[in-house]
Amino acid sequence: MRRIRCAIYTRKSSEDGLEQDFNSLDAQREACEAYIASQKHEGWELLTDRYDDGGISGGHLDRPALQRLMQAVDYKQVDQIVVYKIDRLTRTLADFAKLVERLEAAEASFVSVTQSFNTATSMGRLTLNMLLSFAQFEREVTAERIRDKIAASKRKGLWMGGNVPLGYQADGRTLKIDEGEAATVRKLYDLYQEHGVIREVKERAEDLGLRSRRRERAGGRVSGGRPFDRGHIHHILSNPIYAGRIRHKGQVYDGQHPPIIDPETWERVQNTLEGGAARMRGTKRLATRSPLAGRLFDETGDRLTPSHSRKNGKRLRYYISRRLVTDPSGKHPDAWRLPADQVEGLLVGLVRKHLGRPNATASIVQDVSAAEILAVSGKLGRLKEDAECLALVERADLRPGSLTLLLDRHAVAQFTDCHPDQINPEKLTIEAPFRMRRRGVELKLHLGDAPPEVDQTLIRNIVKARRWLAMTIDGKTFAEIAQAEGTSKRRVQDIVDLAMLAPELLVAIAKGQQPAGLTSDYLIKTGFPAIWSEQHRQFAAL
N or C: which end of the chain has fewer CB within 10 A? Predict the structure, then answer.
């Protein structure tokens, strides 16, 4: 009897109830264990390893336990995945197709305890696809309904949860004033109206002993209770909630909570803030052209400063190590000279990728409801302008082969309409390896491996192969083609097979993205099957 090694996979979308002695994951596992025991006569055997994902959505595959399980499947350590329901494995049809492909490649399968059908038949596969389609539809409709409910509630001026702003206490779906903290907020507004500069407000607030709210979080961790920094002060001065209003997706609505600051005073403060920003833009035009000025550092701690040169009448921007400016003797071979557009684009890509990860919002924004996480995810999804991405960067440190990027906690909070204390600083650091290519004195950075060079020889041979194949279809022999092309018959026979490469491989070759060993010599000497799926399997091993 064939031994069938079974692994149980369980998942729960929310963390509610996971702290209980017997939770949803345990219930799923118990049902799966009973099912495996009932199939003992078929050789089914339960593996001891547990694969449980608690508090993670099924709308993506970036789940720790699932990744471990699929790795075990790839290594052929698991023959059968057992789940309570199909949607525990995934709620997305496209992701399910990827999982099935990996299972088939490893000669493994899966079974649902509560949904019995045979995926070996066309009707079973149709049933499975219908179930997954409805699961995906249900997930998307639920998300839309939550977003619509949040939007409708905020239009009515209701408080929808999250960290309660300084000066208020939660009161159901509204807020009530905490007079002790409200005095601190009013004092900050008074100081700003008196001085008109946030830096001076910070210094005066520190002299007066003003402190942010002290918050005790899960696990005994304490945050807040410290002097206000400039970003926090700006957030308080620009937050419409203190004027009795609610902000949602760029729109401001009248709230149902009492204002701490008179609305006319709040508007006057906004005008002053905007006027100060406009003056700053006018006096620092160079900084706007080089948005990373003062935020790039090399491995020696030297700040990279903006520079430029002209070539053929075109202005070229750079970020260069400051020692090249203070000591232009040229005795600094380790100094950096980076094309500004290229390094700015690289950082923009890193920020978008980091904030666009599945569950990125849930890890970055803490102590908020699931509904609020959806709202913040929507804001991060609209992060499209390069300038917006670079505005979130606090500091970037360059070392040979490695880049460390730190996002500005207050900038992220302001962009997402969150309180700075809601932003988890531990999730704002991005580490990325890169390769360097030097051209003269100029360096270029490439994330991961440097872009591969396009194999021009292979491309020329593929073009010949397709032309020669067309000639054979028209009735010419290999000998006639060789005579017409001024080459040997054997060469024509070797090259013409390249016309049989799969379309996806042709696209990769044109972009220089084919496997490193996929060359003309390899294809001619080794040979390859005409069936495209078999080509993919053969070339995947390169």
Answer: N
116 in a domain, yes or no?
yes
pLDDT (tens digit, 9 = 90+) per residue, 7-22? 999 998 887 777 787 8
- Residue 456 has a CB neighbour count (10 Å cut-off) of 9
Q: Do 307 and 443 fall into the same domain? A: yes
How many independent structural domains does the chain possess? 4
3-state secondary structure of 8: strand
Residue whose structure tokens are 């109206």 = 193
DSSP 41-97: GGTEEE-S--EEEES--SSSS--HHHHHHHHHHHTT--SEEEESSHHHH-S-HHHHH
Question: Percentage of residues in the chain with pLDDT exceeding 70?
Answer: 85
Tokens encoding 377: 């995810």
Q: What share of the chain is helix, strand, coil (3-state, %, to 5)?
A: 50, 20, 30
Domain interval for residue 462 = 456-540
Q: From 237, 295, 296, select the one nearest 267 (Cα to Cα).
A: 237
Instruction: Compute the distance between CA of residue 526 and CA of residue 174 in angstroms, rounded to an integer.
Output: 72
Asked whether 184 and 166 are in contact (CB, 8 A), the reply is yes
Kindly report which listed range (196-210, 327-341, 466-480) carries the lowest average pLDDT score: 327-341
| Residues 402 and 434 sit within 8 Å (Cβ to Cβ) | yes
Rounded to whole angstroms, the Cα distance separating 235 from 185 reads: 11
Q: What's the chain's Rg over C-alpha atoms? A: 31
Check residue 34 and give its pLDDT.
92
The whole-model pTM stands at 0.39
Q: Over range 286-305, report the average pLDDT.
A: 78
- CATH number for the domain spanning 77: value is 3.40.50.1390
Residue found under tokens 């909570």: 257
CA 427 to chain centre: 12
Q: State the DSSP code for 365.
A: B
Domain shared by 131 and 194, yes or no: no
Question: Is residue 408 helix, strand or coil?
Answer: coil
